[in-house]
């Protein structure tokens, strides 16, 4: 398999195609109508398996069939058919999102009495940091943040933008305290910056931010990524979260409002 073919397969897999389905689709796209036997021989796949994969591609609208004098043959549908797959996936995501309130309600009814006790969760590495960041998008109304730097400094930009869009979708107002006098532009999600984001400067002589901290709902979360090691702790306790919110609001009143320079989040003292 050429590097180009491998790259094309990698392009198709995010649309829900397995590597083998992608290989068959690309083969048919290049060769036109072909039999399952021809695909089996060229791609070195069992003929029974090829038929099964062709059926899956047909269900996705990516393969059409015809019968001629030589038997059943298959052809790749237009690549524009991928747009329909994206539409279907978007619909599925919306259905799942709309069902969440009911799921939360039903599952909440079967939680044991011990479920409301204090819970401490530990995470490590980049994936751990992604998890605690994504958890914070479920904040109700407000997220309080003691910020060392923007999340893009430690996580890939694509994930960060996805999280920011989720904040907007959930209408989470973010208030951040930082020791930085200048925060460079950090997002293209302008709606988040214009409607849901505020940042203030706190003099390090008053409060030096050493750990990044997130406070929301009944959660107090802190993490550190110095020395190349990421370590995160989430504490679920309403009383602790309420106390930390009071401390945040106390420091917020002492902090200096930063001037917003643009809709990409750049602020200066």
Compose a concise summary of this entry.
This protein has 269 residues and is of the alpha+beta class. It folds into two domains: 74 residues, Arc Repressor Mutant, subunit A (Orthogonal Bundle), CATH 1.10.10.10; 155 residues, 2-Layer Sandwich (Endonuclease, Chain A). It has nine helices and 13 strands.
How would you describe this protein?
With about 270 residues, the protein is of the alpha+beta class. It has 2 domains: about 5-75, Winged helix-like DNA-binding domain superfamily/Winged helix DNA-binding domain (Arc Repressor Mutant, subunit A); about 115-269, Endonuclease, Chain A (2-Layer Sandwich). About 45% of the residues lie in helices and about 20% in strands. The protein contains 9 helices and 13 strands. The chain has helices at about 5-10, 20-30, 35-45, 45-60, 80-110, 125-135, 155-170, 190-195, 240-255; strands at about 65-70, 70-75, 120-125, 140-145, 175-180, 180-185, 195-200, 210-215, 220-225, 230-235, 255, 260, 265-269. Strands 3-10-9-8-4-5-7-11 form an 8-stranded mixed sheet, with helices on both faces. A 3-stranded antiparallel sheet has the order 6-13-12, with no helix packed on it. It is elongated. The model has no long low-confidence stretch (mean pLDDT about 90).
Element string (H = helix, E = strand): HHHHEEHEHEHEEHEEEEHEEE
Radius of gyration: 26 Å
The number of helical segments is 9
Estimate the helix proportion, in percent. 40-55%
Task: Write the CATH architecture name of the largest domain.
Answer: 2-Layer Sandwich
CATH topology name of the largest domain, in short, is: Endonuclease, Chain A
| Arithmetic mean of pLDDT | 88
For the record, the CATH class of the largest domain is Alpha Beta
Strand arrangement, largest sheet? 3-10-9-8-4-5-7-11
Distance between the amino and carboxyl termini:
56 Å
The figure for the number of domains is: 2
Largest sheet: 8 strands, mixed
The oligomeric state is single chain
Strand content: 15-25%
Structural class comes to alpha+beta
Low-confidence stretches: none
């Amino acid at each position: 398999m050429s590097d180009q073919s491998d790259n094309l397969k990698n392009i198709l897999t995010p649309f829900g195609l397995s590597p083998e389905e992608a290989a068959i689709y690309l083969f048919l796209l290049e060769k036109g109508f072909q039999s399952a036997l021809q695909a089996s021989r060229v791609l070195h796949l069992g003929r029974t398996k090829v038929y099964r994969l062709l059926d899956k591609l047909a269900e996705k609208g990516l393969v059409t069939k015809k019968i001629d004098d030589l038997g059943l043959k298959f052809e790749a549908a237009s690549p524009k058919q991928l747009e329909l797959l994206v539409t279907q996936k978007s619909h599925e995501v919306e259905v799942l999102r709309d069902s969440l309130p009911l799921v939360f309600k039903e599952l909440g009814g079967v939680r044991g009495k011990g479920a409301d006790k204090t819970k401490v969760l530990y995470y490590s590495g980049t994936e751990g940091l992604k998890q605690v960041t994504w958890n914070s998008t479920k904040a109700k109304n407000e997220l309080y943040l003691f910020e060392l730097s923007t999340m893009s400094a430690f996580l890939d930009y694509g994930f960060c933008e996805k999280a920011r869009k989720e904040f907007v979708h959930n209408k989470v107002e973010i208030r951040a305290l930082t020791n930085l006098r200048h925060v460079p532009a950090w997002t293209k999600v302008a709606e988040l910056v214009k409607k849901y984001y505020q940042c203030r400067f706190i003099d390090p002589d008053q409060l030096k931010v050493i750990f990044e901290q997130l406070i929301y709902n009944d959660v107090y979360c802190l993490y550190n990524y110095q020395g190349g090691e990421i370590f995160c702790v989430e504490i679920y306790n309403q009383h602790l979260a309420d106390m930390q919110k009071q401390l945040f609001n106390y420091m917020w009143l002492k902090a200096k409002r930063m001037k917003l320079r643009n809709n990409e989040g750049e602020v200066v003292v």
